[in-house]
Design a protein that fits this description.
The protein is an alpha+beta fold. Helices cover about 15% and strands about 45% of the residues. The chain has one helix and eleven strands.
Length: about 190
């Protein structure tokens, strides 16, 4: 009996030692591997314009030497672009905004952009939320807002969305690569 107990204890001890070595190996390899920053990190902004609290949360892709507009597979001319990267870009306003007669009530939405080579882009405010950026459903569009598109003087490496005061309201600006697209609004 004592011999079989010793063998069992020995086998059990060996199993514990093997498990401990495995845990230490995993811990050591996890510490040795540096974490790489995401290619399109999430960013957010908040602005208070005309009494409206506006927030945007979006993924910020980088140019990285690529042809962006008209070149990337999900950004060909005539396509609807997710206006960012990865998860859908979320836009929240605490008050109703008027984009030249296109009204966006207080609430949370997603933003997409209809890309046209002729510079007639549209900012799409969509009612569907919490989806992946490529899960666009045209039936959920609230409004499509014409944007003023111009060329940047310098290349914008990492896509940027800004919300700034302008005139009697504000502007939402999307800037990336050689393009800047702007949609102006007033607060109701």
């Amino acid at each position: 009996m004592s011999i079989s107990r010793t063998l069992v204890r020995g086998a059990t001890g060996f199993a514990y030692a093997l498990a401990a070595v495995s845990v230490l190996s995993v811990s050591a390899s996890a510490q040795a591997a540096p974490r790489q920053a995401p290619a399109s990190p999430r960013d957010s902004l908040s602005a208070s314009i005309g009494g409206a609290d506006i927030k945007v949360n979006y993924g910020r892709p980088s140019k990285r030497g690529r042809v962006i507009f008209g070149g990337l597979n999900d950004m060909k001319w005539g396509m609807v672009w997710r206006t960012g990267a990865n998860e859908a870009t979320h836009f929240t306003t605490s008050k109703t905004l008027d984009f030249g007669g296109k009204v966006v009530p207080a609430g949370t939405y997603t933003l997409f952009t209809q890309l046209e080579e002729n510079g007639k882009w549209e900012l799409i405010v969509n009612k569907q939320t919490k989806q992946w950026g490529t899960a666009y459903d045209k039936a959920q569009d609230l409004v499509r807002i014409p944007m003023t598109v111009t060329s940047n003087n310098a290349v914008v490496e990492m896509m940027q969305i800004t919300v700034t005061p302008a005139g009697k309201g504000g502007e939402i600006t999307v800037a990336w690569d050689n393009y800047k697209a702007v949609a102006g609004f007033t607060v109701k």
